[in-house]
Amino acid sequence: MTPLFAQVINTPGTNAPGTNTPGTNAAPADSASGEPLAEGAETGAEAVAAEPTALSEFLDSGAIGLLIDGGFFMWPILIMAIVALAVIIERWRSLKMLDTDNEALRQAVLEDLTNDRIEQALERCDRERGPVAAILANGLRKYLVLNRLNYDPARLEEQVVKSMESYGVHIVAALERHLPVLAIVSSVAPMLGFLGTVQGMIVAFRNIVAMDESGGGNIIQAAASGIEVALLTTCFGLIVGIPAFMAFNYFSSVINNFVLDVEESAAELMEAVTLQMTLNNSDKSDS
Asked: 76: part of which helix (H) or strand (E)?
């Protein structure tokens, strides 16, 4: 009985699970459990594919999502917004650097002219920065050169005035640099927004007509969603155009103040030059 029982146990292919004999019946159990594992893997892959990625969430949310929903005309408006921001930063820094004490400079130059210290007044203007110092330096340099050349005193004042006027044109042009860009952005950005809204309304009504012909879907909901997307371009265009318009007016007022200071400084300089020339002529006549 014992040998026969041992022979049955050790027969290949008939061992119970857990024995060390090769070819046991554990293999059918493994093959049976493989199908649920494969199905679980496929379900996990589908769940991962269905989850939105971080890039898609970023593109669908916030300002980027609104830009994409607004259509083609949103991107030219975005470019104009970047250009306008660059011009605003550049003009603000440039004009801020020119904000000096012009009154103190004018008084110091007039005092030097009264005491016949023309070269010292010219050096003082060259050390300062700003349009007032530049126009004063130009007039003093012209007066100094013509005076050394013994130019006709009757025409010297005229030549100094012409020199300062021609130089003042370049000063104003330098102050108003890039301002036309702000003017263009402030007017074109809202117009592009309106154009994008009109184009979006055309597309929305076309979709409504197609939906009505097919007889499916909610027409009112489709119209509301289409109009909402179309109005994004108008909103974005106004958001860009209004700050550009405000910045243009602000910089224009600052530049006008600089121009007034330049004209006032040039007039005071000419009065001082005329007085100095009169005193020099009287001293020569007395001698």
From this structure: helix 74-97
